[in-house]
Design a protein that fits this description.
Blueprint: H1 7-20, E1 31-37, H2 42-55, E2 61-68, H3 78-84, E3 90-94, H4 100-111, E4 116-120, E5 124-126, H5 131-140, E6 144-153, E7 160-162, E8 168-172, E9 178-182, H6 185-190, E10 198-199, E11 208-211, H7 212-217, H8 231-241, E12 245-257, H9 269-280, H10 285-291, H11 304-312, H12 318-325, E13 339-344, E14 350-353, E15 368-371, E16 381-383, E17 389-391, E18 398-402, E19 409-413, E20 427-429, E21 435-437, E22 442-447, E23 456-460, E24 470-473
Parallel strand pairs: 1-2, 1-4, 2-3, 6-12
Antiparallel strand pairs: 4-11, 5-12, 6-7, 8-9, 10-12, 13-16, 13-24, 14-15, 16-17, 17-18, 18-19, 20-21, 21-22, 22-23
Helix pairs in contact: 8-9
């Protein structure tokens, strides 16, 4: 059967099929739900707890373990203890010091009685029927780590908005930042039914179920990671490279509030990402470091034990992960002399600079020139062997292009793997340092005064001016 990919057809068919599934509850494993929190609001924390109690079949719910990561709010002291004292199956444990999300979750996992661990954030609302599909999948395949579809709860009104389209899968960019993506066509073709699980290269991190036995076999969380950030990608790499599968189940829905400010500081996220890169990414970690030069200097602790775990489990290479699990991710070439800051010879210390309008859309905005800062990120570009000037720090990747009847450089979506380069995205990087735009037969020139109000690279008739000479510099 071919899967419908149009949003309306897909959602209707999926919802209808999900409602018809029958479960043999006596054969499904029981789960401990672990919810770590720090200074969480009363309403959102209790909304999470009560929604789990009200939507989970009693036979499948072993317990709810609340882990207080050393909160100092009064309402999370005696009032919380009094409230949950009358709630069946709810346990509260408190850390003796701030542990951070990773170790707080492990505190809960260490005392869990269920066969399955289900981790939830502390500002969720579970949907009726959310738990059964997760338990059924883990019963079928113990090495599956399964995530629900994450629905949106409005931050301002706390209204459950649901999910407007078909489920999305997790990805990443070369800064090691988690990204959302539509389900690729290759994955749709492998699925026989709209309610089949969907393979996902990475997880958002907060909401998933895993066999407790398998979680421990995989090495649980990396306890060398501090506070929060990066642990989701590290665990995703480990699942796939060490023989498991990471999946999204379309029949399981959990609402989630995406706070404007996370309860945990991301101050340690860089070190956590470096640990993930050092253990799991092999030679591809250099692509990460090129885009985050400061990450090379970040203290990240001892990863000897994690490398030994990888060897013990006989895990696959990161190359295998890219080729088999995430082939949609473009792998930069990063040829020496053709990546880094794109600097102008005639305008001292000014570089190509691009700040996308939002995290999920790298296109549609003009490229400007800005004082070079050497931090990668919005000033990191790559000139490829296909004559593209790529901005491949974020996903989806953007390529420098020229709109019709314009001399300004605008960011367009890059071609996908295997496609030919659009003519308006082709630039020839000549030996003399000029960037020649084939379609218009003009060269890229640095201009101090532009209609945009700031310096910018514009197309001009080719000359021998240093304002038309460019070079790449990897670091300051």
């Amino acid at each position: 059967m071919k899967i419908q990919t149009g949003n309306g057809s897909w959602i209707a068919l999926s919802q209808m099929r999900c409602k018809t599934v029958k479960y043999d509850y006596y054969k499904l494993p029981r789960t401990s739900v672990v919810i770590a929190f720090y200074n969480e609001a009363w309403s959102t924390l209790l909304r999470t707890v009560h929604s789990v109690l009200e939507t989970s079949p009693d036979i499948l719910l072993e317990e709810i373990i609340l882990v207080d990561d050393y909160s100092d709010k009064d309402h999370l002291k005696e009032p919380l203890e009094r409230h949950i004292s009358v709630l069946k199956k709810v346990r509260l444990i408190r850390a003796n010091k701030r542990e951070g999300l990773v170790r707080a979750r492990l505190l809960g996992a260490s005392i869990a009685k269920g066969e399955v661990l289900t981790f939830l954030d502390c500002h969720c609302e579970c949907h009726i029927g959310w738990l059964e599909p997760l338990m059924e999948r883990i019963r079928e395949k113990e090495t599956a780590v399964v995530c629900p579809v994450i629905d949106v709860i409005d931050w301002n009104t706390f209204e459950y908005l649901g999910n407007a389209g078909e489920p999305q899968i997790g990805g990443l960019d070369w800064r090691l930042v988690f990204t959302w993506h539509v389900v690729p066509e290759r994955e749709q073709k492998q699925r026989r039914s709209p309610i089949d699980v969907i393979s996902s290269p990475t997880m958002a991190g907060g909401l998933f179920s895993v066999s407790k036995k398998y979680f421990e076999y995989l090495g649980s969380y990396d306890t060398g990671m501090e506070v929060w950030g990066g642990e989701n990608l590290e665990f995703s790499f480990r699942i796939w490279q060490c023989g498991g599968t990471l999946e999204v189940h379309p029949c399981s829905h959990v609402g989630h509030v995406f706070p404007k400010q996370a309860p945990y500081s991301r101050s340690k996220a860089l070190a956590n990402s470096v640990r993930a890169a050092e253990v799991w990414m092999d030679e591809y970690k250099e692509l990460y470091y090129h885009r985050n030069p400061h990450a090379r200097l970040e203290p990240y602790g001892d990863v000897t034990e994690r490398r030994q775990l990888r060897e013990k489990l006989q895990c696959k290479s990161f190359k295998w992960f890219l080729e088999n699990i995430y082939p949609e991710l473009h792998v930069p070439e990063d040829r020496p002399g053709y990546f880094g800051m794109l600097k102008n010879k005639g305008m001292d210390n000014y570089c190509f600079d691009y700040n996308p309008p939002n995290e999920n859309d790298v296109t549609g905005q003009k490229i400007i020139l800005y004082p070079c800062h050497g931090m990668g990120q919005n000033q990191f570009f790559e000139y490829t062997s296909y004559n593209e000037i790529r901005y491949n720090t974020r996903q989806p990747e953007g390529c420098t292009a020229v709109e019709q009847d314009s001399d300004q450089l605008t960011m367009f979506l890059c071609r996908e793997n295997g496609q030919s380069v659009p003519e308006n995205q082709k630039f020839i990087f000549r030996e003399d340092g000029t960037l020649f735009h084939e379609q218009t037969k003009k060269c890229v020139q640095a201009e101090r005064t532009t209609s945009m109000g700031n310096p910018a690279p514009l197309l001009r008739p080719c000359s021998n001016s240093n304002l038309q000479k460019w070079f790449f510099q990897e670091r300051s």
